[in-house]
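so my prof wants the structure for this chain in the tokens format not the other one, which i didnt know existed until like an hour ago. anyway here's the sequence
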Amino acid sequence: MNILILGLGFKKQDTTYEMERLEAGLQARGHTVFCSLWSDVLFSFGKETTITTQGKDIAFFDYVICRYPLSTTTERPSREIIVSSFLVRMYKHFVMLVDYAQHHNTKVLNQDVCGTLSSYDKMTQHYILQKHSIPTLPSFLYTGYNQTHYPLKKPFVAKTIEGSRGVEVFLVHTDKELKEIVEQYGAGNVLVQQFVPNRKDYRLITIGDTVIGGVLCVNENDFRTNAFMGGDREKIEPSRAMKQLALTAKNALNAECTGIDIIQSNNQYYVLEVNIFPMFMGFENATGIDFVDALAQHIET
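here's what i got, hopefully its the right format
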């Protein structure tokens, strides 16, 4: 197959472990692989609409593996340095590209969810997960600057609905802190969530209808367990209950390839977030499981 890997970086220096692993692994299985960045994509509107990258029409490819546009930073952000990790205006371009590919019979990984808002923001994800009776932590969306009281015990977590990698996630101790966060990021863009003070959670990777493995995510120095924030990964054997919860969550979003973040509190598992096409370097390093081979088998079926 002709396979396009798109959007795992935005600038040439942003090529990642994931892009290189996918390219090498898919080529080893006999596929012709093209790698491209979001900055290479051209939308043309005339007698016909075309979407191309590096001179090739998206319709040329049999399969596209893509991720929504992320900005990157070479420095680990501190609490004082806010790094916007999502290029907000680009989600419309992503949705259009997925629709264009489907119209030309080009398959896109996670295509049933990539054309919806649940691929991009935590608010929509929570709404869908709740509709399917999937347990999530009590959460509230801050829609006004004057709303400062929630039935949650402080401290609680405040996070922007479009943040990624633990950036724009804060531990809030006072109403004043919360108001300042909302004023900075805008009303309607901040999700307030119950804080579980155990400094660990789990990530399960699903491909197709299978949980291929899981890791324990731990950070002794920060409440955020993301690898980008210094969190460590340890291999685990997920319990049957964790696997069932992960598969139920990914099915609720109609996703093919996900990283399901799960936390345990009072002997109950809760879904924190469904990551659509997750980064997998930490997972592979911790577990020894070949993510790319599992994904390739899914693509080929």
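also thought this was worth mentioning. The first strand starts at residue 2 and ends at 6.
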